[in-house]
Design brief:
- The radius of gyration is 13 Å and the shape is globular.
- The protein has one domain.
- By secondary structure, it is an alpha+beta fold.
- Strands 1-2-6-5-4-3 form a 6-stranded antiparallel sheet, sandwiched between helices.
- Helix content is 17%, strand content 34%.
- The longest helix is centred in the last third of the chain and has 10 residues.
Length: 103
C-alpha cells in the first residue's frame, strides 16, 4: 500500500508467499493515480512476453522479476502483482472474486 492515498481514496492490499518463496499480491485503490500504479508495479513498463490479458494491462518491472496486471474500471484500480510467472499470476487473478468497495 502506498504511504498516502489521494483525498477520497481508499485502499486494500493482501500478499501471499508461494511454496518456492515467490510472492503474489492484490492491491486496490479508488482514485488510483499513475504514481500509485508505478509504486505497486515498481515502475512497470508494458510487458512484451505476457500472454493476452483482455481488460488488463500487463507490466514488467525493469529492475527485477516483478510482473503485474493492472485494471482500471468503475473508479477502482486493481493491481495483481508478484514474482511468479505469467501463467501463475493470471491463475491467481482468475481466482479472485469481486467484492463491492466500502462506502
Amino acid at each position: 500500500m502506498p504511504a498516502a492515498l489521494p483525498a477520497g481514496a481508499w485502499g486494500a492490499a493482501s500478499r501471499w508467499v508461494t511454496p518456492d518463496d515467490s510472492s503474489v499480491a492484490v492491491v486496490q485503490s479508488r482514485n488510483g493515480t499513475d504514481d500509485f500504479i508505478d509504486e505497486q508495479t515498481i515502475t512497470g513498463v508494458p510487458a512484451t512476453d505476457a500472454p493476452p490479458t483482455p481488460g488488463w494491462r500487463a507490466l514488467q518491472s525493469p529492475s527485477n522479476d516483478q510482473r503485474s496486471l493492472v485494471r482500471e474500471a468503475d473508479g477502482v484500480t486493481t493491481v495483481v502483482t508478484g514474482s511468479v510467472d505469467w501463467a501463475s499470476l493470471i491463475a491467481f487473478r482468475d481466482s479472485l472474486q469481486p467484492v463491492p468497495p466500502p462506502r
